[in-house]
Amino acid sequence: MHKQEAEGGYRLPEGYERCAKLAPVRDAPDAFGRVRALVAILHGPDGCPWDGAQTNESLLKPLLEETYEYIDAVETDDRDNMREELGDVLLQSVFQAQVCSEDPEDPFSIDEVCDRLVDKLITRHPQVFASDDETPRALGADETLALWERMKQREKRRASVLDGISKAQGALPRAAKVVSRVGKSQRADELDAAFDTPSTLTYDHADRILRIVREAARDGVDIERDLRMRLREVETAVAAIEAARAEDDADGGLDGARAAGADRRTEGDDDADQ
């Protein structure tokens, strides 16, 4: 818990208590309201020039970067950094919503975003929330996820189980998503044959990667997470090798300097003898 919350309410940083421009932040009813108020100020006409110039498109890169930094904090179990990076992810979401609210043609607020999210979470959890004329259905975790995907496909009127998969993401997470969607489809056995269609590529590396992704999915393994974890191990090993080499080089340089000094002293002794 934030120290200020523990002491009974948020206070502006020391030295900013009387800043008039921060009045909306100070008067906000809760923590989320403070974030919204501050972002509105920064993106407003009297705010930060850089923040004010941002668009939904220009904010995509920091949104992606902050998301990866939060993933890294979670996977390294850095709790303090999780607090920091989750705040940065929240900032990017609120910032995007602020820009959307100012769109001249199709504006919408973060309140609309939140209400739409709440509606979706209710209607897509029939195993938790019964509608007025139904009773909740008991489902396991895998069944629940499959039901979610089917309901999403029906709600969005998707003709294919693959509709809606972003082509902007990397090939590995995209492959994992395709494999997952096919596997959760009600026609999984039929659609699975698509992976065996002939490839036009010269080499079979892509097919081999796809086979690994499918094997990982069958084993319940998050292949992208495992690859990130393995890369961290490799990076740690590389750093250790480099550190050892640097130490050896330093020792070698010192030994060489000592040897050169000894040679010079020997030469001096020889000259004196002559």
Automatic annotation (TrEMBL):
Keywords: Hydrolase. SUPFAM superfamilies: all-alpha NTP pyrophosphatases. InterPro entries: MazG-like_dom (IPR004518), NTP-PPase_MazG-like_N (IPR048015), NTP_PyrPHydrolase_MazG (IPR011551). Pfam families: MazG. It comes from the Bacteria. Residues 245-274 are annotated as: Disordered. Gene3D superfamilies: MazG-like (1.10.287.1080). Residues 54-129 form the NTP pyrophosphohydrolase MazG-like domain. GO terms for molecular function: nucleoside triphosphate diphosphatase activity. GO terms for biological process: dATP catabolic process; dGTP catabolic process; dTTP catabolic process; dUTP catabolic process; TTP catabolic process; UTP catabolic process. This is Nucleotide pyrophosphohydrolase.
